[in-house]
Design a protein that fits this description.
With 645 residues, this protein is α/β, with parallel strands linked by helices. The protein contains 18 helices and 28 strands. Helix 12 crosses helix 18 and helix 14 runs parallel beside helix 15.
């Protein structure tokens, strides 16, 4: 019995020793990227197989799948090991990002297999966002392709400094050294401007395993390491641990009156009990009283640890704020310059409103200007008014509220963001912050003693913005003009902003491209907001064809003061009326970007006032608007008298 107990203890110690040795191993995160069909999935499958990471039943399943979906004849198709989606197997491509963990005697690895197709570039950026090293695959027969360059640029922008140039399928060019040398020279000339710390070229055949986990005898002219030898020995800087302390607050934990803690994950640096910390947005400092975890209190916490910090003082800290080291505080601003990689199928348009989301914070944001677009072939800085899918640009960004951030080059965790489309909730862009704009430091809100409430009260009316939208010729201007005339006659203080009139002055520099239309509406919305702040009833009559811009205008106003008026006239009727002769000219091709013909009109989904004009007179429709205004004002008055405000 004693002998059995000794053996059991020995087995337990062996397991503990093994687990401890695994904990001590360093971790390398890397991704495979490059153009389509360069062999990324095959390479990862080969790595997993040759490092004994595949069980016998998995291997048997892989053999069956290779016969059904494979592209290598009777041989095992290792690409199927990570191409798990049915669509991927049917088409022989990678669509999603596949993550795999494996280890060798020297190191642990997490590898991301990313797609090569242009339309899935956003998935490649996802894989690159946490990687330390990129394996850029190049088909030896094809050489450096546009997607090779695009992925390399994105890897550089996302902070990757170690690159392996894997010249794959070298067997298909007869293991020719001249082919390898030419590709290496081409890539080196291109990558010289990307700031990589090292580019390690390796010739290989992922399909047959040449130079993957062992050096190949079929490449006697190559004296460098195999891929796995390089991955096991490449130096990985623990940048997160060495960077200044950053703790983005994800949740305020208040289970009872006696406990108030701030939960999150230490993004970079470290913190210990008793350390002084500063709240990034307010600048107020306090000290750490406790570091709480599910397993008990800790004396200190480092990058990557999820903890709850209890502070000495009752300070205001909410989700989206950051606790930081006092001596190395981040920037706090609502305007900054950033590199943006655009993923959206619809172009990025300056002035259009998006949701900007950082690790724990978010705010409404607009790209104020495209400083330049980056040409992926020549690195030339090209002027641009919009940004198409998979293009990269340096942009000015403005947010509706200040954000705390570092420059991306100093801190990947707190210097990055994504842009989200307000209508679809799709992620349409990824950004890397360069620096705050100096003008953000010079511009501050001036406190005024007379506000919108006082200005409206003296006029004995409620400030309002009535936003008329509809096709050209729908009758917007006619109805808006008649409405203002009746409101004025009843003693109301009004002003009408008409699309044509504004283009004679404020917006005379704008054309009719999508980008100019967005800027047109942005400027008008800003003017309407100022007029509403003055207590006026503002009547805005613009085609304003895009949902996103009308939503932006709504969100700029005080809640309850904005009403969308949809002047709903069918296209055929507008074209029949054609009061300015514009439809006829557009149909002859004399006018480009004409709404309803070669530029879209996005009809309102839930307009407060929906005016169907066929069979109705302008006077009848004005009466509908007046009734709506009267009912709204009456409801507001009852709410005020009932103590709702």
């Amino acid at each position: 019995m004693r002998h059995v107990q000794v053996e059991a203890r020995s087995a337990q110690e062996t397991v503990r020793d093994y687990l401890a040795s695994q904990e001590r191993k360093s971790l390398l995160r890397f991704l495979t990227c490059g153009s389509v069909d360069d062999g990324k999935s095959t390479l990862i499958g080969r790595l997993l197989a040759d490092t004994r990471q595949i069980y016998e039943d998995q291997l048997a399943a892989l053999e069956r799948d290779s016969r059904k979906h494979g592209t290598t004849g009777d041989e095992i198709d290792f690409a199927l090991l990570v191409d798990g989606l049915e669509a991927e197997r049917e088409q022989g491509i990678t669509i999603d990002v596949a993550y795999r963990f494996f280890s060798t005697a020297r190191r642990k690895f997490i590898v991301a297999d990313t797609p090569g197709h242009v339309q899935y570039t956003r998935n490649m950026a996802t894989g690159a966002s946490t990687a330390d090293l990129a394996i850029v695959l190049v088909d030896a027969r094809q050489g450096v392709l546009p997607q090779t360059r695009r992925h390399s640029i994105i890897a550089s922008l996302l902070g990757i400094r170690q690159v392996v140039l894997a010249v794959n399928k070298i067997d298909l060019v007869g293991f020719d050294q001249a082919v390898f040398d030419r590709i290496v020279a081409d890539y080196a000339a291109f990558a010289a401007q990307l700031g990589f710390a090292a580019v390690t070229p390796i010739p290989m055949s992922a399909r047959f395993g040449d130079n993957v986990t062992a050096r190949s005898e079929r490449l006697p002219w190559y004296a460098g390491p195999s891929l796995i030898e390089h991955l096991e020995t490449v130096a990985v800087d623990d940048a997160a641990a060495q960077a200044p302390f950053r703790f983005p607050v994800q949740y305020v934990n208040r289970p009872n009156l006696d406990f108030r803690g701030f939960a999150g994950t230490v993004a970079t640096g470290s913190v210990a009990v008793g350390d002084e910390v500063t709240i990034a947005k307010s600048g107020r400092s306090t000290r750490v009283r406790r570091i709480v975890t599910q397993g008990g209190d800790l004396p200190a916490a480092t990058a990557g640890q999820a903890v709850t910090l209890v502070l000495e003082d009752e300070v205001e800290v909410s989700r989206g704020n950051i606790l930081v080291a006092p001596a190395t505080r981040p920037q706090v601003a609502d305007q900054f310059v950033a590199n943006i990689v655009w993923f959206g199928e619809q172009a990025l348009l300056p002035g259009r409103s998006y949701i900007l989301r950082t690790e724990t914070d978010q705010a409404g944001a607009t790209v104020t200007d495209l400083k330049y677009r980056l040409d992926i072939d020549s690195f030339a800085h090209e002027p641009a008014k919009s940004l198409e899918m998979n293009e990269v640009a340096v942009c000015g960004v403005s947010t509706q509220s200040p954000l705390a951030f570092d420059s991306f080059s100093e801190n990947r965790a707190t210097g990055s963001f994504i842009l989200i489309d307000r209508l679809t909730n799709a992620t349409v862009g990824a950004g890397m912050i360069q620096h705050a704009l100096r003008r953000a430091e010079n511009i501050h809100w001036q406190s005024l003693d007379v506000g919108r409430k006082e200005r409206a009260l003296i006029k004995q009316q409620k400030a309002s913005v009535l936003w008329f939208t509809g096709l050209s010729g729908s009758g917007k201007s006619t109805i808006a003009n008649l409405l203002e005339k009746k409101l004025h006659a009843s003693g109301r203080h009004t002003y009408t902003l008409d699309g044509d009139n504004v283009r004679h002055g404020l917006n005379r520099d704008l054309g009719f491209t999508d980008a100019d239309r967005v800027e047109n509406i942005r400027r008008v919305a800003e003017v309407a907001r100022l007029m509403a702040d003055a207590g006026l009833i503002v009547i805005v009559s613009f085609i304003s064809p895009f949902l996103a811009e009308r939503r932006m205008a709504r969100e700029m106003m005080v809640e309850g003061e904005f009403a969308e008026v949809f002047v709903d006239t069918p296209f055929e009727e507008c074209a029949r009326r054609d009061p300015k002769g514009l439809y006829a000219r557009a149909q002859r091709g004399e006018i480009a970007n004409f709404t309803g013909i070669d530029s879209p009109y996005e009809a309102p989904e839930n307009a407060e006032i929906h005016l169907r004009t066929l069979g109705r007179t302008p006077e009848e429709m004005v009466e509908t608007i007046e009734t709506w205004l009267s009912e709204r004002d009456s409801a507001d008055q009852q709410y005020d008298e009932g103590g709702g405000i």
